[in-house]
Each structure stands twice: as structure tokens, then as C-alpha cells.
Amino acid sequence: MWCFVLHILNFLYRVVMSRNDGILSFKEVSFEHGPNNPILDEVNFVVRRGSKLTLMGQNGAGKSTIFGLITQKYEPEEGSINFHGKPSIATARQVIPREELDLTVRDFFQNCFSEKIYAIDPKIDEVLEVVNLKAPYDRTIRSFSGGQQARLLLASALIQDPDILLLDEPTNNLDKEGIAHLTDFLVGYQKTCLVISHDADFLNAFTHGVLYLDVHTHNVEQYVGDYFDVVEEISVRIEKENRKNAQLAKKAQEKKDQANVFANKGGGMRLVAKRMRAVAEEMEEDAVDVRREDKVIRSFTIPAQEDTPPEILKISSVKVIKDHVSKDKKVDLLVRRRDHVQLIGPNGIGKTTLLESLTHSPLKSEEQKEPSHVLSSGVKVGYYCQDFSTLDFEKTPYETLLEVMDRKHEEEMRSVAAGFLITRDLINTKIGHLSEGQKGLVAFARLVLLRPGLLILDEPTNHINFRHVPVIAKALDEYNGAMIIVSHVPEFMEQIRIDQVVDLEKLRRKNR
Question: pTM (2 decimals)?
Fold first, then answer.
């Protein structure tokens, strides 16, 4: 009954969309990134003014490309993209481009406009208030944490006061407070909003429609309701399609069997048999194409480095940040061979700074009589960085994966890559040309082949298709080496064994 209601609602929704209240429409739009990489194939959909829609699809399907077509970064090869009333458009991007990291806050926001905006400071204050962030105008973007940069990305779109707001993974790096603040804002937002996200709970809080980009058919399907509604409707359709195909296959085989009987009788019966075979072929052609659901990465194991010492890492002090000022705080943390450590604290307190410091030998400050941490000799460190700065964007996955292997076994490398959906059509593509989600999968494949003794993970679910997340959680839970992890996704962390928790907020309050 519920699926029947959904079907009626979707029908009525499409009727409404056909009227003249659409602010944006795709009409028979086709686009490809090169001859062997089709993204859209004669796509049609309408976005109603004031609607809030989720754009969903597998990593690499082309969701960000659709945003690029809307902003006219790309031009469709066929079809047209139509706007009603010349709406202004702004995008909250996934990451801040590397060339913008050395801009000041003021220059970063000024860079959002094609013409110089005088008296921009009050506008900056207004949008920073919306995203709940304090940021001095002369501070460089690079100095902000990943979560603070996520807020700056959102503010950079809001300052343009667009008619169409495009959000590309806006919750990446945000802590619980940041996500709640953003959700409250979007619930009350009056203009049109399209959002790409793998956070189902976040999406369900404010969106009321789904544009589903099928990576196999390169088409966009439009639904009313949240993601869970869409999944249920798709499941029912798959069951119906499979049932229809089974019935057609059974009838076709019956016709073929009858045709064989008549053909053996000879004479005029051969003509009857020929007609029956033609009917059977028509039935086989009528079989519908059953939807191929998004692929999920294979279950995997990150092998731990062998013969590591019992004690992997000792940390005697950490830097915590308050009001943009860093202070050293004493700790006594020993990470043993199989210890799993979770690092927690709000955005901007210094979690990423600490993780980055653990990947290289520490430098002693004037106040320190001993280094802040000591990593046991010979321990290999595998670092999953939230901005993928450990990956060379000019190299291909083929080069990136092969270079970390002690023994260069190409067959093993390709097998691991395929398990992370890095197939033949992607393995020789420059990493800089991959989607953020695909970069994340390359980073995980790299960790598998590296075989680290210490695994350091900074927001490992960012950009990752939520279908892959349970597989990743299982692999981390079963990892037999030492691990230090930062994540703001509680549902993910609940699936992983944690032996110690380091709370930087408690350290910041201690001995002020």
C-alpha cells in the first residue's frame, strides 16, 4: 500500500514539475568526460523554485559534474539547460582549492565575486554568524582546521545570497554541533537548494525530493520523499521487473519447446515452428533491463606490519588551540601494538595538527626538554589525510599503488584496486581527475598495499558512498596494528573497537 502511495505521489510531483514554477530544467542533456567516460545520457528533470532536493548516486557517477553544468563550468554536448528568470547560483564546494589556501579570510570572500565588493566586512560578519565561526579578516585560510574550512566553504556560497544554492558534501569535517547548526539553517532556508551528501540523517532533516543519478544508465530519476523512501520504491520496482522477466522467460521457453516439436513433424508444421520461434524472440526482447544497484567495495583487510615492537608510539605533549592560540598540554599516552585510539574534540582544537605531527619526527620548542612524541624505529605509518594531500594528484592510481609495495606485484595491485572499484578505466587516470570519493578509495587501497604498523586516519568516511562505510568500519575494527582515528560520525565509530579515547577539549580545560 505504501509503495502504491509513493507511486501516486511521484506521479503528482512530476505533474507539478511540468508547470511553469520550475527555476531550473535539464532537457535531453548529454555529457561525457572524454569518449570513454559518459556521465549523462539524454537526461530530463525539473527543479521547482524553493525546493530542497538531494542529488544522489555512486562515487564517480557524476554528481559534481551536474553541479558544474548548472554553474556553466561545463557545457552540455547535447540538449539544453534552462533557467527561469536568470537566477543567481552559488556552490559550497567540497574542498578549498590549494591555490586559495594562502588567501586571507577577506580575500577569500572577495574572491567569490567577479567584481570588487566595497565594505565587504559586514557581509563577512553576517555569514560567519550563520555558520557559527569566528575568523579574523587577516587570517589565512590554510591556518583553519578541516571543520572550520568546511564552514568557510558554506559561508562563501551564502555570502553571494544565491537564488540556487548548491551544496557539495557540506557536512564533511563538521563536528556534531556544526552539523546541527547547518541543519537548523537549511530547515528554515527559503530559496532553492540542491545538496550532495552521504549523510542520510542530515538529508532527511530538510530535503523533500531526490534526483538519483544512475551510474550505469547515465540517467537521472526524480522522486518525492527522502532516500529511504526512494530505496523502498526502487526495491519494489526491481522485484516487479525480475518477476516480469521470469514470466517472459518461462513463456519464451515454452514457445521454443513447442516449436521444436512442430519442426520435427515436417511439412507445413515447420512454418508454424518458425512463427513460434519469432514469438519467443519477441518475448525475450521484451524483457526489461533490471536496475543494477550501486556497487559496493569488496570486504578487505589492512595487513599489519609484522615484527613491530610491543610499544609503537609514546606521546608526552600535544598542542591544543583556543582563540587561534596554540598551547602545549602534557599527556602520558602510550600506544601499543594493537591499540586503537580515538581522538575527539570540537572543530579547530587541533586534532588534524596532532595527527600530522605524528607522521614525522617532532621538533622541540624552546619550552620543551624532550620531544612531544617518539615513534619506535622501523614502524611504517599509513596516513589517511582528509584532504588527500598524501596523494600526488599528477600521478595515476597505478603509479600511486605500485610505489608503496615492498614487492612490485602488479597482479596483486590490480586485484586490490579492483576491490575498491578502481578498475581498468580509472587506474591510469590522473588522481586529480578522480572524484573526491574515488580519491578516498585509492587512499584505502594504498593502505592495504602499504601494510603499516601504525594507521592514522583523519575523517576516513568523508566523500565516501555510505554503502561502503560498513565495509570500511569492519576492516578498521579487525586491523591488528596500532591505530589513531578522528571521525565525527558516531554511527561509524560504534562499529570499531576503541581501546583509548583522548579528549582534547578536556586537556584544553585542564590547568588553564
Answer: 0.70
